[in-house]
Specification:
Number of domains: 2
Bound molecules: D-serine
Shape: globular
Largest sheet: 7 strands, mixed
CATH architecture of the largest domain: 3-Layer(aba) Sandwich
Strand order of the largest sheet: 4-10-9-8-7-5-6
Number of helices: 16
CATH class of the largest domain: Alpha Beta
Structural class: alpha/beta
Helix content: 40-55%
Strand content: 5-15%
CATH superfamily of the largest domain: Type I PLP-dependent aspartate aminotransferase-like (Major domain)
Length: about 400
Amino acid sequence: MTALKEFDSEIYNLIEKEKERQMNGLELIPSENFVSLAVLEANGSILTNKYSEGYSGKRYYGGCQIIDGVEDLAIDRAKKLFGAEHVNVQPLSGAPANIGAYFAILEPGDTVLGMDLSHGGHLTHGHPITYISKIFNFQRYKTDLETGLIDFDNVRKMAKEFKPKLILCGYSAYSRDLDYKQFKEIADEIDAYTMADIAHIAGLIAAGKMNNPVKEFDIVTTTTHKTLRGPRGGMIMCKEELAKKIDKSIFPGLQGGPHENLIAGKAVAFKEALQPEFKTYAEQIMKNAKTLEKEFIEAGFKLCFNGTENHLILMDVTSKGLSGKEAEKVLDAANITLNKNMIPDDPRSPMDPSGVRFGTPSLTTRGMKEKEMKKVAQWMIALLENPKDEKLIESTKKEIKELCNDFIFYK
Ligand code: DSN
């Protein structure tokens, strides 16, 4: 970054500091990851200069012949990766992907059945604070508090009662796999569309480690930067018969010019995910999550949804006398980064909820395995059980730095 360093040392220094933070700490936010240098180079390339509103072969700007090739490659690779009939790689992120999908198939006032936020859903799945909740009528189902699974009898009951035009699944803080067939059966009974938001687990699905809704569902949305390990961005996959509606909804319905440098980054990440090593990576993410699960259960912590079948864990910390905010703070002080999070039917507020959410994609990218996960869990447990012990915080921070030195990802 010589040009940046020379021209803007303030931004350069902040980027260097952030790199140091990322490398000297344990990144456990389950929606984050470390992209390869190849992805970074594509993201930072001269493709950022180009306007290309429209789609391949039908652009509103001249000079798009090369850009078409970039976007076509991204689409072809995504189709291969997920078995999708049609792919739109232009959504700027997960929220526009979801909103674009709604506008493609719904009319204002239509009903959508989605998951409650505190049970693992997402803001864009209809939380009352969002603008889309003023346009569509969102009804929210929940998980079964005993089993941690989706209560399909209740989903069916709600589907019959509210007659949604769309049934939505796929979540941001849910740690179990999903039975997409059951959602599809219920949707077929009431002639509703099906949509899955696989943002968190896309990499695990691409690697064949979790159930894939793409064949059965009408629409599947995702971000590209979580377990899929690509650049920040979104993507929509759908059945061929919805292709035109989806494309029109993203552009010109919702967005302007796509960010082709990021689309190139997506193409590179998809190529990486098509390699055999990516399967090993996805498998290790899940093994690492299972290792954390075991350690926390043995230490008497309460895991929501009865544990994990993917990359993340949602954990109630109140039984240890802490709130999610306090837990986040003490771990942060020792360079362990995760996020406070609501737990199902949380009696506390979103800014100071009962739980924390953490996961293994970033540490697995750095090459950490079960042995390191045990250490990570032990550090976390000791800190959560002794949150006021400043000496412990300082010594843990030092030990973490030593471990991190053996797993530097960005030199
Ligand atoms: N903000 C993302 C997450 O952390 O899960 C979802 O959009």
